[in-house]
Amino acid sequence: MSVETVQEDLAGSGYLASDAIATTVFLAEQLGKPLLVEGPAGVGKTELAKAVARARGARLIRLQCYEGVDEARALYEWNHAKQLLRITAERAAGESASGSSGADGDSGWASVRDDIFTDEFLLARPLLAAIRSEEPVVLLIDELDKADVEIEGLLLEVLSDFAITVPELGTIEATHTPFVVVTSNATRELSEALRRRCLFLHIDYPSPELEQQIVEAAVPDLPSALAESVVRLVARLRELPLRKSPSISETIDWARTLLALGASDLSPEIVRDNLGVLLKHRDDIERAAASLDIH
Amino acid sequence: MTVVQLPLTRHLVDFGRALREHGLLVGPSEVIDAASAAEALGLQDRERLRAGLAAALLRRSGERRVFDEIFDVYFPSAVGDPTELITPPTLLDADERREHAAMLRDQLAAALASNDTAALQRLAEQSLVDLGRLPNEASAGAFSAAQALDTLAPQTSLAAALQAGTGTDGPLFTAAFRRDELRSRIGEFRAAVESAARRRNAEVRGRQRISRYAVRPSTDRTLFILAGPQELAELRATIGPLARKLATRLAAKRRRRNRGQIDLRNTLRRSLATGGIPVRPAYRIRPPHKPDLVVLADFSSSVAGFSRFTILLMQALQAQFNKVRIIGFVNVCSDLTELFASAPPGSDLTEEIRDVREMTRWHRNSDYGSALADFVDNHLDAVTPRSTVLILGDARSNHTDPRIDALRVIRDRARTVIWLNPEPARSWGSGDSETAVYGQVVEMHECATIAHLRQVVSRLLPV
Ligand SMILES: Nc1ncnc2c1ncn2[C@@H]1O[C@H](COP(=O)(O)OP(=O)(O)OP(=O)(O)O)[C@@H](O)[C@H]1O
Ligand SMILES: [Mg+2]
Q1: What digits encode the pLDDT tens for the residues B414-463?
Q2: Complex ipTM over 0.85
Q3: How far, in Å, CA of B151 to CA of B131, rounded?
Q4: For the residues A226-243, what does the mean pLDDT come to?
Q5: End-to-end CA distance of chain A, in Å?
Q6: Which of A68, A258, A285, B41 is the most exposed place for a label (fewest CB within 10 A)?
């Protein structure tokens, strides 16, 4: 394998990777290390993990983080409803057999406990599912910065040993090392311990050449000259101090809009009337209009 | 890349050390990863090697510029080998230099207009070699990017480039922002000249020296008062996440003390360990509460450099808190909340704040005592038991009465008071500094760099 083949494979799955992105993905595969991806919103962090999964024919398992995500949602959970049912069923069976549950109550509970803390009652959440998977897996831990710091402690074991310990069952080790992608929008600092375990990739807005290729691939009917103008305009807007700079997906949306309008060229009127596709805040739109002199 | 003659690992260890000297956390395991990366990639493609080493050695985006500059010194490109350049006979007299600069400028305009990156790179090397060579004997063989750029004045190529390039755009709308595009390219050209200087000087004077002195410190270590426009942009990018962290930490402090209703699902789950009997009930945690923030900031001239940081921090904090009140003072207080709230994000408020007259009375000197007393008299209603009060200033009060009683009133009313002092801790207490007095009443932290701020934030609540 080489950086070129990684780049081709990703392109084959619809992801046009810069040389730096392809190099880092290649290394993450070669060194078997998780990849921590940071960068502004909409530059293709999530999409990268999906594209790797498609390119490798691997299953994508995604842990979407949010404030309050906990062990039970990330790792595993005992199916307690089912467990309670089993307890009740056993008790009922015991009572009808011996007439009373008195004498051997203690050993009865021990056997029930052995019974209900088994695979059958274990609900695997994304991290456990990825470790236990029989087929190759891409594990996407998306927007980790949105989760509380405590969740990072859980991740450390998974990311360094690719193993998970369930007290009642023992340690479960991965059969395949999953390809792990952790993404963050840097709304909070991730811990040093976590950063140390990962290769780091900062994805920034693509170069105009690459962005034009992405736009042309996504909107094939758009004339090439117009695609170029679109990309240049977006690059300008990204240099303005805005609340939210336009992302790649917004560039694509804007290109689609222009195609739908049948525009053959950017004109001040078209830009002014459709800035809302690129920019989401009213004061951003005003600022951009002022700077492009299209008020 | 013929320059890497040492065994690669040794070279990477040296590279790691140079990064460490600039405050990056590069330990042995990072260097080992870097070596594996270099082995997997090979050394033929310099940009791939750069990307691979960055992946192994970096931890956060803010470290990238320092990394790139040191990488240029340790892994110089072979591009612009002096033999490839058409070097004219030494340009001694000023007229000759001017003429030569004019010629280079024409070439620059053409390269800018056609956005020919290879030509721009070659011109950057050529300009440095032709115009940046230092004249005196002691600096034999060394180059100055500043001298080259002063003589060349690349910004003056803009007009010519603009004319040369209109061909493709014609009357099109994109022509409207061509000027800005060219301006960015000129900025890149300047950076290329600077990078060429670092590399060539490293060959002459040794890598270690150059990486130590010619690479600007990472944003983390830059003193706020020394930050230039470029550093400010980086500071802004770094302060955002830190402000958010500060806010979550302050919210978390509160969350811990806050137990709410019983959580049925988790109680049931726990009860399994005790045979279905809920012995240990689980509580639902109340959603985090955004605390209120009151900032009291010194805008006097002794902290003039610091105030740019203060402004950035306050702009970043504003979004993170329920309610923010921003009070500026020199010797009396003025409510600046509106000023901050109405300004677009990222805008530079230095001018506006300088124009606020109400922060001074009678004289322009700072007086913490009267400012604190004025705060208690006129703004105390902003402080509630839910408020965190952040004081930003050097506590240099021109030998006036420190009015410690006023600070006590504020402290007793607020939830927490934290004082960030931009002065190095070693000069606290000297001269008119009242740090010893105020430090007895509230927590005071040194905060002159991003690294300090990071420390303060993590110390506020060790997890
Ligand atoms: N290199 C690329 N090649 C093709 N399409 C891309 C590329 N990068 C981004 N895109 C497009 O941009 C869209 C947004 O990307 P994605 O959702 O992965 O961004 P993100 O960085 O995860 O954003 P957020 O931080 O908001 O989650 C994708 O759906 C895809 O259409
Ligand atoms: Mg995403």
Answers
A1: 988 989 988 888 888 888 888 888 988 998 988 887 778 777 777 664 33
A2: yes
A3: 7
A4: 89
A5: 53
A6: A68
Residue B176 φ then ψ, to 5°: -60, -35
What is the C-alpha to C-alpha distance for residues A151 and A164, in angstroms, rounded to an integer? 14
- Residue A192 and residue B152: Cα distance in Å, rounded? 45
Task: For residues B185 and A240, give the distance between their C-alpha atoms in angstroms, rounded to a whole number.
Answer: 16
* Dihedral (Cα; B33, B66, A47, B44), 10-degree rounding: -60
Supply the pLDDT for residue A131.
92
- Select the residue of B54, B272, B344 nearest A83 (Cβ to Cβ): B272
User: In a 10 Å sphere around its CB, with 0-12 CB exposed, 13-18 middle and 19+ buried, how is residue B415 labelled?
Assistant: middle
Look at residues A179, A180, A208, A210 and name the one whose alpha carbon lies nearest to residue A194: A180
3-state secondary structure of A77: strand
Rounded mean pLDDT, A268-277:
89
**Among A213, A248, A254, residue to substitute to test ligand 1 (most atoms within 8 Å of Cβ):** A248
* Chain A residues with beta carbon closer than 8 angstroms to that of B52: 23-24, 27
Question: Within a 10 A sphere around the Cβ of B182, how many other Cβ atoms?
Answer: 21
Verify whether the Cβ–Cβ distance B241 to A3 is below 8 Å.
Answer: no
Ligand 1 proximal residues by C-beta, below 6 Å: A 15-17, 41-47, 185, 214, 248-249
Residue-averaged pLDDT of chain A: 88
Number of helices (H), then strands (E), in chain B: 19, 8
Rounded Cα gap, residues A33 and A21, in angstroms: 15
Q: How far, in Å, is the centroid of ligand 2 from the Cα of A7? A: 20
Q: Which residues pair with A184 in a beta bridge?
A: A38
Which amino acid would we find at residue A162?
F
Beta-bridge partners for B297: B328, B392
pLDDT at A66 over 50: yes
SS3 B421: strand
Query: What integer pLDDT is reported at residue A110 of this predicted model?
Result: 73
Instruction: Determine whether the interchain pair B55/A199 forms a contact, defined as Cβ–Cβ distance below 8 Å.
Output: yes
Contact B294, B336 (CB under 8 A): no
- Degrees, nearest 5: CA angle B270-B274-B280: 50
CB atoms within 10 A of CB A282: 10
Encoding tokens for residue B97?
A: 């230099």
Give the neighbor-by-neighbor strand order of the sheet with B443-446: B333-335, B324-329, B292-298, B387-392, B416-421, B443-446
For residue B243, the tally of other CB atoms under 10 A from its CB is 22
Environment class of residue B62 by beta-carbon count within 10 Å: exposed (0-12), middle (13-18) or buried (19+)? buried
Spell out which residues of chain A touch residue B33, defining contact as CB-CB under 8 Å: 31, 33, 199
In the numeric block, the tokens 């000129």 are attached to B186
Report the chain A residue with the minimal C-alpha distance to residue B236.
Answer: A241
Which stretches of chain B score pLDDT less than 50?
1-5, 79-80, 82-83, 257-258, 461-463
3-class SS of residue A123: strand
The residue written with tokens 């960068």 in the block is A39
Predicted local confidence at residue B132, as pLDDT: 87
pLDDT higher than threshold 80 for residue A51: yes
pLDDT tens-place string over residues A167-189: 888 888 988 889 999 999 877 77
Q: In the prediction, which pLDDT does B4 show?
A: 47
Q: Reduced to 3 states, what is the DSSP secondary structure of residue A135?
A: coil
The residue that leads in pLDDT, A149 or A197, is A197
